[in-house]
Design a protein that fits this description.
The complex is a heterotrimer of chains A (163), B (758) and C (289). With 163 residues, chain A is of the alpha+beta class. Chain A is built from 5 helices and 5 strands, in the order E-E-H-E-E-E-H-H-H-H. In chain A, strands 2-1-5-3-4 form a 5-stranded mixed beta sheet, sandwiched between helices. In chain A, strand 3 and strand 4 form a beta hairpin. The longest helix of chain A has 22 residues. Chain A is globular, with a radius of gyration of 16 Å. In chain B, 59% of the residues are buried. The termini of chain B are far apart. Chain C has 2 domains: 167 residues, 2-Layer Sandwich (Uridine Diphospho-n-acetylenolpyruvylglucosamine Reductase, domain 3), CATH 3.30.465; 113 residues, CO dehydrogenase flavoprotein, C-terminal domain (Enolase-like, domain 1), CATH 3.30.390. In chain C, 35% of the residues lie in helices and 24% in strands. A 5-stranded antiparallel beta sheet of chain C has the order 4-5-10-6-7. A 4-stranded antiparallel beta sheet of chain C has the order 11-12-13-14, with helices on both faces. A 3-stranded parallel beta sheet of chain C has the order 1-3-2, covered by helices on one side. The radius of gyration of chain C is 19 Å and the shape is globular. The chains are: A alpha+beta (163), B alpha+beta (758), C alpha+beta (289). The interface between A and B is large, with 58 and 56 residues. The complex binds flavin-adenine dinucleotide and FE2/S2 (inorganic) cluster (2 copies). The site of flavin-adenine dinucleotide (FAD) has 31 residues of chain C, from strand 2, helix 2, helix 7 and strand 10.
């Protein structure tokens, strides 16, 4: 029997029907057509499916869709504010931090979680934080630089706004 | 098109945001698994649990009876391809083998080999149906290792496989598909001259390309047979050609629409799922989508060949290399076709050596059929050669870069595989390495520095580009090559350069197979070079038509019209007149209709590429764990059209090579089943394993390209194997000849060396 | 498969009991869902225990002991400053599990009840002398973590039992623990070998209590009292550590598998245990100042 789930995705109340065994990733992609969240492995190893679930970074392939009942989910589709990109998205573009781009949504969600939690990470903190997000194209160099640059930029804007 | 007074181009060499960037950071870009059609069925593939078995019987009746199952296919649904139809123009790929690879006919040859495919209303039903297909196997002895596969008593994979390249031809089948020999000079004489001779044996493991996007496709067949395929691949025309051949269809019946590709690295230069999806769609009358799981990707696609290599070099006391010789045995996987010839050709290509003899064996084993992986065949051979060069440097007490400089191939050097090099930049990469602060930075305890170089041919090939001028003066650049690493940006930059307009007025698009003429696939580091050449020529033609249109409007001879800053310019009655691109576009109707240019070429003159890498490691002497501390990749890139994406190629390739060197390997159980078909135990590098990857772009322009472009994508994966191994060898004081240099392997070598010293 | 997410402790045992052996508890699901994806049969009833307060709480008692809910995720454990400072080894072992994404879900209870020989948190919990509070339809019992795992993949829990929380006892001053593991990469790997050391020093820095537990070097995580004996009474001097290393290595009973060989595991377990002992020693000495 299908279960009826009421949840919030990127701030919007969303309902869906699913089987108890369906993963959140399957429902996001197949039922809700939020295909920005990618599947690279389905077993928690690549991070392409990263989303925020109640303010924790998780692999949506290792979450059951039924667990989303009455929760808050954020995906890559919710990063930009209307037509203005999140500073991380802009930094990824400016620093050429993507080649094929399949890892990018997961990395952006993971990087946002990092900066929410630690606004001025060191290079090493960035590297360990994103160790669960595989990228086979870039060698990570430009990704790490983009995240550090976005952090810098967000701090300056933030400080600027405060003063 | 002209350089500015300071020698730079107006667009080429700048770093604009890529045109497809926004889609890729917002999640909007449609990759293969993201494409959906409302009434699509889900496909699933039955795969062999055995490494080697005869298929005695296969019965699909129970599966077909399951409610929700709409179609099932097996190899008997594929047209038979006879031996004389196997090759086109005598060139690989072998379509008979490809057919048997996508659906096994009489034998399964590796764990994961596809046997049947099902289409059903949803994925769960399709999976259930697979379990209901009855297959009776006769399990056969299998062989995984390349040296064991060459032994006289090894289980034979193909009863009809007689080694090619040996005269007289052997009378019995074996797993050695072919022998390849390459001779330059006289090695015997060379070694006789040598003061020092070094010999060593090397092994490397097969490695997977490791693209993060698993294979996936959608197919739809109309009742008249007109077929649509949506998939990500390295070439939509490749997919069309292979499907047509495997399914015996005219090309005009198939349209392939390329979706965004989530990495390929050579691994998406063939088809696995697409023909199955077409057959299932044809049979069911509904669109069919098939996706591989990550485990399927590991079990049934790629990898790059593993190898056993025995190599020998001879040198004079002053370091001059006088002879080199190698025997290279490459695992082809279940069907012939490893890139061993390319290994033979590239191993010593960076060096001017008078006498070189290389022998290569292409060997089949019970593993997935190997596929191209960035500079196919070169990294393993280079690992052996560059290790020997490093050993020679140590023996001579010579700086390893000095030794390479002494022997470096230069303009005019005749290569061991035939042609003479022209306008190459190898020496410049060595000099840049010497001058780089990395090379003289101090090292601590248990640390070591390795250097290694690499060579790749780079390719040109058939390429098409269409430029169309929109009514408002903006320009579409349409090409036929999937953009894996930012090539849209490079196409736009080259077009903008020729048209002398801002790059944001140029929109690059990648077309389906019905919307543009043929192009070879994205591979061989060819796109920016060859497709870029087509774009450049098309842009030049567009400028010529624009001048023609201006001539019509002004009613003056066309040769009085210049093209400057995106405008037609002429001096009429002593007065400078200007017609902008926009006004020419707006008046196109008056001057002969829409303005466009379509160029199809077979690009020649790809400039060879050379790279030199420097790697520092630290080795934990008690555990054998290796940490890469610092890495610098230096490469002659011709002209960097979009430098960020060129750097990205160097960085990504270097890191793939580091993974190959340190931790990536397949593991098999005693039955030939893969133990690690996932990213947890197939260990590609993660971000915290690595330092920043410094790059130095040496620009020695390729004179046969309008902007001096050389291919850059493949060279960077070649040097890391040698560079890391040389660094680990120097850090530990003992030579490492087996890859990957995983902690247990390194520790064993350290312990063995310690015992020897005692 | 049916999904249940009770909010009451008692309901868990009842649901498990009524599933008649075909029920399964899910905490973070990082082991369970990965195994479902790999084709493992699913239970009839899946009981999500993350909606029960006792399972999601970290509590510090006035005696310094901690009670950690079995389903608390790794990230929440790392954020608990008092727990991290009292039990640096246990918390660093938990923190080593998987990626940040995995940390958002993975729990101590799951790591323990998954019963993998290579589980990272388990040796640290064993060395810490942690005790499980177990609830079943027949009632409650307390079992030391060291006695939970019987064989790879199997625990001593009955099919209607589950772990509610883990109790970390109060500790004397100048005590500390440490956990180290060897993985080929720097993250995202399963331990080839792991070693946890929990010790107490006296005011002269002499080891007066020590517990050593190893992971991935035997079918179940291993307590090695023989090794503890070597460092007891010592100040972790170099010659003692050499002996310690070889006793640890000799106590291992590993297998050859895809992650390591017997020889390598034996050797590395000794190396790691010695390094962990020195780290724990330093931490304990610092603590007492
Ligand atoms: C990518 C990846 C990386 C990983 N890396 C590591 C690693 O480095 N080190 C490591 O040790 N592990 C690792 N793991 C395994 C896993 O994350 C850990 O074992 C984790 O602690 C399991 O916790 P969980 O809450 O997710 O367990 P679950 O998956 O929810 O449960 C695991 C098992 O325990 C049972 N269970 C859970 N809670 C209870 C309870 N309270 N009472 C009774 N039974 C219970 C479940 O029924 C199930 O059988 C990794 C997993 C993944 C996917
Ligand atoms: S798809 Fe979820 S981690 Fe790879
Ligand atoms: S950009 Fe391709 S995987 Fe990261």
């Amino acid at each position: 029997m299908k279960q009826h789930i009421c949840t919030h995705i990127n701030g919007e109340a969303t309902e869906f029907l699913c089987d108890a065994a369906d993963t959140l990733l399957q429902v996001l992609r197949d039922n809700l057509r939020l295909t920005g969240t990618k599947e690279g492995c389905g077993t928690g190893d690549c991070g392409a499916c990263s989303v925020m679930l109640n303010d924790r970074l998780v692999c949506s392939c290792l979450v059951l869709a039924v667990e989303a009942q009455h929760s808050q989910i954020e995906t890559v589709e919710g990063l930009a504010n209307g037509d203005s990109l999140h500073p991380l998205q802009q930094a990824f573009l400016d620093h050429a931090a993507l080649q094929c781009g399949i890892c990018t949504p997961g990395l952006l969600v993971a990087a946002k979680a990092l900066l929410d939690h630690n606004p001025s990470p060191s290079e090493s903190e960035v590297r360990f934080w994103i160790a669960g997000n595989l990228c086979r194209c870039t060698g990570y160099d430009k990704i790490v630089r983009a995240i550090l640059a976005a952090a810098d930029n967000m701090r300056t804007t933030h400080d600027g706004a405060q003063s | 098109m002209s350089r500015s007074p300071n020698g730079s181009w107006r667009s080429v060499g700048t770093r604009p945001v890529r045109p497809d960037g926004i889609d890729k950071v917002t999640g909007r870009a449609v990759f293969s698994a993201d494409f959906n059609l409302p009434d699509a069925l889900q496909g699933a593939v039955l795969r062999s649990p055995f490494a080697h078995a005869r298929i005695l019987r296969m019965d699909t009746a129970r599966a077909l009876a399951l409610p929700g199952v709409k179609a099932i296919i097996t190899a008997s649904d594929l047209p038979e391809i006879t031996e004389d139809q196997a090759l086109i123009n005598g060139q690989p790929p072998d379509f008979r083998d490809m057919s048997a690879n996508i659906l096994a006919r009489t034998k399964v040859l590796y764990e994961g080999h596809a046997l049947a495919a099902v289409a059903a209303v949803d994925a769960k039903t399709a999976e259930q149906a697979l379990a209901l297909i009855d297959v009776e196997y006769e399990v056969l002895p299998h062989v995984i290792d390349v040296q064991q596969a060459m032994a006289p008593d090894a289980p034979v994979l193909h009863d009809s496989l007689i080694t090619q390249g040996i005269t007289p031809a052997p009378s019995r089948p074996s797993n050695i598909a072919s022998r390849h020999e390459q001779v330059h000079g006289d090695v015997e004489q060379g070694f006789a001259q040598a003061d020092i001779i070094l010999t060593e044996e090397f092994t490397t493991q097969p490695v997977h390309q490791g693209y993060i996007e698993p294979h996936a496709c959608m197919a739809r067949v109309a009742s008249d047979g007109q077929t649509d395929i949506w998939c990500s691949s390295q070439g939509q025309f490749m997919v069309r050609a292979y499907c047509a051949r495997l399914l015996d269809m005219p090309l005009s019946r198939i349209r392939v629409t390329p979706l965004e590709i989530g990495g390929g690295f050579g691994g998406k230069t063939t088809v696995y799922l697409e023909p199955l999806a077409v057959l299932l769609a044809r049979r069911s009358g509904r669109p069919v989508k098939i996706q591989m799981s990550r485990a399927d990707v590991f079990r049934a696609t790629g990898p790059a060949s593993g190898s056993y290599i025995s190599m020998k070099i001879g040198a004079l006391n002053d370091g001059t290399l006088v002879a080199a010789q190698g025997i290279l045995c490459y695992q082809a996987g279940a069907f012939p076709g490893s890139p061993v010839r390319l290994g033979c050709m590239t191993a010593f290509a960076p060096y001017d050596i008078a006498n070189v003899k290389m022998i290569g064996y292409d060997v089949v084993v019970n593993r997935p059929k190997s596929a191209a992986y960035r500079a196919p065949g070169a990294p393993m051979a280079s690992f052996a050669a560059e290790s020997l060069i490093d050993m020679l440097a140590q023996r001579l007490g010579m700086d390893p870069l000095e030794l390479r400089i002494r022997n470096a191939a230069r303009d005019g050097t005749r290569t061991a595989y035939g042609p003479r090099f022209k306008e190459i930049g190898y020496l410049q990469t060595l000099q840049a390495a010497q001058a780089h602060p990395h090379y003289s930075a101090p090292l601590g305890q248990h640390q070591g520095r390795g250097v290694a170089s690499g060579f790749w041919f780079n390719m040109g090939g058939q390429s098409s580009a269409a430029l169309t001028l929109n009514e408002d003066g903006t320009v579409m650049v349409t090409t036929a090559n999937p953009d894996i690493g930012g090539s849209r940006a490079s196409m736009a930059l080259m077009a903008a350069e020729v048209l002398e307009i801002d790059v944001d007025r140029v929109r690059p698009e990648i077309a389906d197979t019905s919307s543009i003429a043929y192009s070879d696939l994205t591979g061989g580091s060819r796109v920016t070079f060859a497709v870029g050449m087509a774009v450049t020529q098309a842009a030049t033609e567009l400028v010529a038509s624009l001048q023609q249109r201006a001539a019509t409007l002004w009613d003056i001879p066309v040769d009085q019209i210049d093209w400057r800053e995106g405008c037609a310019v002429a001096s009429i009655d002593g007065k400078q007149e200007i017609l902008s691109l926009s006004s020419l576009a707006a008046q196109a109707g008056k001057t002969g209709g829409p303005i466009a240019a379509h160029v199809s070429i077979n690009a020649q003159g790809a400039g060879p590429g050379f790279g030199t890498h420097i790697c520092d490691v630290e080795v934990d002497p008690d555990t054998g764990r290796v940490t890469v501390l610092r890495y610098t990749a230096i490469q002659d890139v011709g002209t960097a059209v979009h430098p960020s994406y060129v750097e990205g190629q160097l960085q990504g390739g270097a890191v793939q090579g580091i993974g190959w060197a340190l931790n990536e390997a397949y593991q098999y159980d005693d039955n030939g089943a893969q133990l690690n078909p996932g990213f947890l135990d197939y260990r590609v590098p993660v971000a915290s394993d690595l330092p920043m990857i410094d790059t130095v772009l040496v620009e020695v322009p390729n004179p046969r390209h309008p902007f001096g472009v050389r291919g850059v994508g493949e060279v960077p994966i070649i040097p890391p194997l040698g560079a890391v191994a040389n660094a680990v060898s120097r850090a530990t004081g003992t030579r490492h000849v087996d890859l990957p240099m995983s902690p247990p392997v390194v520790l064993r070598a350290i312990q063995r060396a310690a015992r020897r010293r005692r | 498969m049916q999904y249940q997410a009770p909010t009451d402790l008692a309901d868990v045992a009842a649901l498990l009991a009524s599933a008649d052996g075909k029920g399964r508890v899910m905490a973070g699901g990082t082991d369970l869902l990965a195994r479902f994806a790999a084709g493992m049969p699913k239970p009839d009833v899946l009981v999500d225990i993350k909606h029960i307060a006792e399972l999601m709480d970290i509590e510090q008692a006035s005696d310094g002991s901690f009670t950690v809910g079995a389903a608390v995720c790794g990230a929440a454990i790392s954020e608990h400053a008092a727990l991290c400072s009292a039990w640096p080894g246990v918390t660093e072992a938990m923190d080593l599990i998987g990626s940040v994404q995995i940390q958002g879900r993975a729990s101590l209870g799951g790591n323990l009840c998954n019963a993998s020989p290579a589980a990272d948190a388990v040796p640290a919990l064993i060395a810490a002398g942690a005790i499980c509070r177990i609830l079943g339809s027949q009632g409650e019992r307390q079992v030391s973590v060291a006695d939970i795992i019987c064989s790879p993949g199997k625990t001593c829990l009955d099919s209607d039992e589950f772990v509610v929380s883990l109790y970390l006892p109060p500790r004397p001053p100048r005590s500390a623990d440490a956990y180290l593991r060897l993985i080929p990469r720097s993250e995202m790997d399963i331990a080839v070998a792991g070693a946890a050391v929990n010790l107490t020093l006296d005011s002269a820095d002499v080891v007066v209590a020590a517990t050593i537990a190893l992971g991935a070097v035997s079918p179940v995580p291993l307590l090695v009292p023989r090794a503890a004996d070597v460092i007891l009474g010592s100040k972790l001097e170099a010659d003692v550590m050499t002996r310690f290393k070889s006793v640890v290595s000799a106590s291992c009973r590993p297998i050859n598998d895809k992650r390591g060989t017997i020889d390598y595991r034996n050797h590395v377990a000794g190396v790691l245990a010695a390094r962990a002992a020195l780290i724990a020693g330093k931490r304990a000495a610092r603590e007492g100042l």
